Amino acid sequence: xxxxxxxxxxxxxxxxxxxxxxxxxxxxxxxxxxxxxxxxxxxxxxxxxxxxxxxxxxxxxxxxxxxxxxxxxxxxxxxxxxxxxxxxxxxxxxxxxxxxxxxxxxxxxxxxxxxxxxxxxxxxxxxxxxxxxxxxxxxxxxxxxxxxxxxxxxxxxxxxxxxxxxxxxxxxxxxxxxxxxxxxxxxxxxxxxxxxxxxxxxxxxxxxxxxxxxxxxxxxxxxxxxxxxxxxxxxxxxxxxxxxxxxxxxxxxxxxxxxxxxxxxxxxxxxxxxxxxxxxxxxxxxxxxxxxxxxxxxxxxxxxxxxxxxxxxxxxxxxxxxxxxxxxxxxxxxxxxxxxxxxxxxxxxxxxxxxxxxxxxxxxxxxxxxxxxxxxxxxxxxx
Length: 383
Ligand code: SF4
Description:
Shape: globular
Bound molecules: iron/sulfur cluster
Protein name: DNA primase large subunit PriL
Family: Belongs to the eukaryotic-type primase large subunit family.
Domain DNA primase large subunit C-terminal: 252-368
Oligomer: single chain
Strand content: under 5%
Cofactor: [4Fe-4S] cluster
Mean pLDDT: 84
Pfam family, one: DNA_primase_lrg_N
C-alpha cells in the first residue's frame, strides 16, 4: 500500500479514503480471514458506536493510521452482517458524531495555525469540497476565517437547496425555514449549525449502501464465517441494550441516583468540563430516565457551548422510535475510573440503571425532580 494520506485515518468515509482502500495491497476480505489487527479495531468501532455513540478508539496510540483506515470497511462488513436497522442507524450516527467532533477540533486548529496537527487536520473548505458544498456555503463576512489571525466566522449563508436537503423536520422548530433568516436564496446559520449540517452529510454518506449483502459468494461466505464470533457479540450487545434501555421507572429522583452518577452530576454542576466518556455516561443515564435536552442541561447546570453539546448528545441518544443507547454498565464505568463511592446496593447490581430502579422501588413514594425543579429547589440539595 502506498503512503497514506493521514486525513484518511480520521475521515475514512472520504472518497479518497475509499479509493485508497481499493488500491491497498491487501483487501478487507483478506484482513478478515487473517484476523488482522484492523479486524479488532473494526469490532471496537462498531461496539463503541452501539454503546457509546462514538467510533473513536479507546486507546488511539494502539492503532496505526493504516489500521484505522482499514477498520472502516471491516466495520461496514460487521454492521451488514448484524443486519438490523438499529445497528445501521446507530453506527452511521456514531461515525457522524465522531467526525463532527474532529471537524470542530480541526477547524479550530486550522484557525489557530497549529502546525503540529496540520498534517492530520482538514479545513472547512476541504470538507465543503468533499461534500460538493463549496458553492453552497459562504461565510457571512468574506474575510472571516480566510486570513491567518482573522476572526473565526460566527455565521454563514447556506444555499436554501443544500439547507433543505441536509436538515430534517425532526431537528426542531428552529430549523424550519419559516423560522430562519432567508435572503436571496440563502439561509443564515451559525457556525455550530453549519457543523450540524456537515454531520448530517457524513451520516448519509456512511449509511449509504448499508447493510449490503456479504454472503452470496464463496469469498463472502468465508468472510461471514470468519466473523461469526464478532457478529454474535454485537448482537448480544444490542440485546443487552434493549433490556437496559427500557426503564420501568419514570420518575427522576437525583437523591436516589447511584453514587457514580451523583458524582458526575456534582462535578458537572461544579463547573468541571467532564471527559467525553464521562459526559456520555451521565447524559445517557439521564436520557434513559426519560429526560429531554433542556432537563438534562438544567440538572447539569450547563450553559452555552456545553448545553449545545449536551443537546446534540441527547439527540443521538434518543432515536426516532424512542429506543435509546444504554448507558455504560458498571464494568465499563469501572474501566473509565468513574465507578466511585460504591455502597452496599452496588454489590447487588451490574448496571447503574439497575441500581436506580432498585433504589426507587425501595423508596416507595417519590417526587419527580422535574416537578420540584419548577419550585426552585437546588439540585445540590437533592444529590
Ligand atoms: S458499582 Fe455500578 S452503580 Fe455502583 S458506583 Fe460503581 S458503576 Fe455506579
